[in-house]
Design goal:
- The chain is built from 1 helix and 12 strands; from the N terminus they run αββββββββββββ.
- The chain is mainly β and 215 residues long.
- It has a 12-stranded antiparallel β-barrel with strand order 1-2-3-4-5-6-7-8-9-10-11-12.
C-alpha cells in the first residue's frame, strides 16, 4: 500500500473511531473539530490527527492519534493515541484526565493545565503524573503563533514539547515544530520532529514538508 493510500485509510479510521467514541454525547455538544497533519520527512511519514467536542465553556473531550511510519522498516515506527477530558475551573486553569496507548503500552495521566489565548497567540502548559508501568512526571508545552500577513494569509509557527521524567532520567521526550503559511483552514510549510526513547538511548529526527487541514 502506498503512503497516500495509507494516509487516507488511517485518516478514515481515525474519523470513524472519533465518531463512535463521541456519538453518545454528540447531540449535547457543540460542533466537533477535526484537524489532520501529515509530515513527509527524510526518515518517515508522520500522520497526526486531532479531534474534540466542547460541551460548554468548561468541559472539553479530545482525542489525538499519531502514527510515524519509517521508510526502511519497523524498528522506529511510533504510535500515540490518547483520549482526554479537560475541565476548566477558571479562565486559564484546567484539570486534564487522559488514557491512551503509546510505545510501548497503555498509560493514564492526571495533569494540571494552564492556557493563555490571544487572537494570534495560544500557549498551553500541562504538568502532572502519568502512569505507564511506573509513575513519572510529565510536562507538556504547546505554543502556536499566527501573525497576520495580509487579509487572506497568516504566518504559522508551532512548537510542541513533551517530556516524561522519573528517577532514572528522561523516559520519553519529543519536540515537534512547524513553520509555514496559513490560509483559512489550510496550513503548509516546514516541519521538524525530534523523539527520544529509553532514557536518551535512542534519539531520532524527521525533517520535511507538512500540510495541515482543520475543519
Amino acid at each position: 500500500m502506498g503512503f497516500s493510500n495509507f494516509a487516507q485509510d488511517f485518516e478514515q479510521k481515525m474519523k470513524a473511531f472519533f465518531f463512535i467514541l463521541f456519538i453518545p454525547v454528540y447531540m449535547q455538544a457543540q460542533k466537533p473539530q477535526f484537524s489532520s497533519d501529515i509530515l513527509a520527512g527524510h526518515r518517515s511519514t508522520t500522520f497526526l490527527h486531532q479531534a474534540g467536542v466542547k460541551f460548554n465553556s468548561s468541559l472539553t473531550l479530545s482525542h489525538l492519534g499519531l502514527l510515524d511510519v519509517e521508510y526502511k522498516g519497523k524498528p522506529n515506527n511510533i504510535y500515540f493515541i490518547r483520549t482526554m477530558l479537560t475541565y476548566g475551573f477558571t479562565r486559564n486553569f484546567a484539570v486534564q484526565v487522559g488514557v491512551g496507548l503509546k510505545n510501548p503500552g497503555n498509560f493514564s495521566s492526571l495533569l494540571l493545565n494552564y492556557r493563555y489565548f490571544k487572537p494570534s497567540l495560544s500557549i498551553s502548559y500541562s504538568a502532572g503524573v502519568t502512569y505507564q508501568s511506573t509513575f513519572n512526571f510529565e510536562q507538556a508545552l504547546n505554543v502556536e503563533y499566527t501573525p497576520v500577513l495580509n487579509t487572506a494569509l497568516r504566518g504559522y509557527f508551532q512548537v510542541m514539547a513533551i517530556g516524561n521524567l522519573n528517577d532514572k532520567g528522561l523516559q520519553r521526550g519529543l519536540q515537534y515544530s512547524r513553520a509555514g503559511l496559513k490560509k483559512q483552514g489550510l496550513i503548509a510549510g516546514i516541519g521538524v520532529n525530534l523523539d527520544q526513547f529509553n532514557y536518551m538511548q535512542n534519539c531520532i529526527s524527521n525533517v520535511g514538508i507538512f500540510i495541515k487541514y482543520t475543519v
